[in-house]
Amino acid sequence: AQKVTQAQTEISVVEKEDVTLDCVYETRDTTYYLFWYKQPPSGELVFLIRRNSFDEQNEISGRYSWNFQKSTSSFNFTITASQVVDSAVYFCALSEGGGGNKLTFGTGTQLKVEL
Amino acid sequence: DGGITQSPKYLFRKEGQNVTLSCEQNLNHDAMYWYRQDPGQGLRLIYYSQIVNDFQKGDIAEGYSVSREKKESFPLTVTSAQKNPTAFYLCASSFITGTPTGELFFGEGSRLTVL
Asked: Is residue B55 within 8 Å of residue B48, measured between CB atoms?
């Protein structure tokens, strides 16, 4: 069975600090997909990134970067120079190769960025 | 604007009553999903549908029912058999492709409280 663990329940930082959100996953499949979603206070989840298990290249998008390491089954998310607008709950999720778009979500990390 | 509309946003129900949550999408997506979100537990899949008139149980389907009579609509009924229905319910939709894209589009959710 697949599982996603986000051990950090809540993180508080001061604006402009860098912050890393951890995600550890478990799966028996060799083909799988990893995702990050953001849930602002309004409630809807917003898709941030998708990674497949064959692509271990790190990715950077503006202030966001993702570090995928199969050796440690981790897919961590870093926000550089955090801003108040980054305050949200962030979810890591996993989909196995034959699972269509059914995602298994972690429990989420509440990020609070303060002035 | 294209998107997913969930209604009502807030709903109160007495114990023993069934209640139906509405989900409509105008994105022409094939698949639709219902997730339940509880504090500290992340999102859990209730039901999903990949085509009209067909749907499958997710991880926590007991006490819930759905229908998919139209591509645009996927209502969820929370029945009196659901032991702990107070939660935040999220509807999502996506295209279906050969490989999972994982880009689910979410509504803003419906918060159900049982009195």
From this structure: yes
What is d(CA A57, CA A34) in angstroms, rounded to the nearest whole number?
A: 13
Contact assignment for B106 to A97 by CB distance below 8 Å: no
- Cα(B100)–Cα(A39) distance, rounded to whole angstroms? 21
Cis peptide before B39 (omega within 30 of 0): no
**CB proximity under 8 Å: B 35-64 to A:** 35, 40-45, 48, 50, 58
Distance from C-alpha of B31 to C-alpha of B35, rounded to nearest angstrom: 13
Is some CB atom of chain A closer than 8 A to the CB atom of B112? no
Residue A17 burial (C-beta neighbours within 10 Å; 0-12, 13-18, 19+): middle
Mean pLDDT for the stretch of residues A80-95: 96
Closest CA to B16 of B85, B108, B104: B85
φ, ψ for residue A86 (rounded to 5)? -80, -10
Tens of pLDDT, residue by residue over B8-33, are: 999 999 988 999 999 999 999 999 99
Residues 6 or more apart in contact with residue A69 via CB below 8 angstroms: A56, A75
pLDDT tens digits along A9-21: 999 999 999 999 9
B68 pLDDT higher than 90 = yes
Range with the poorest average pLDDT among A9-18, A36-45, A89-98, B66-75: A89-98
- CA B25 to CA B68: how far, in whole Å? 12
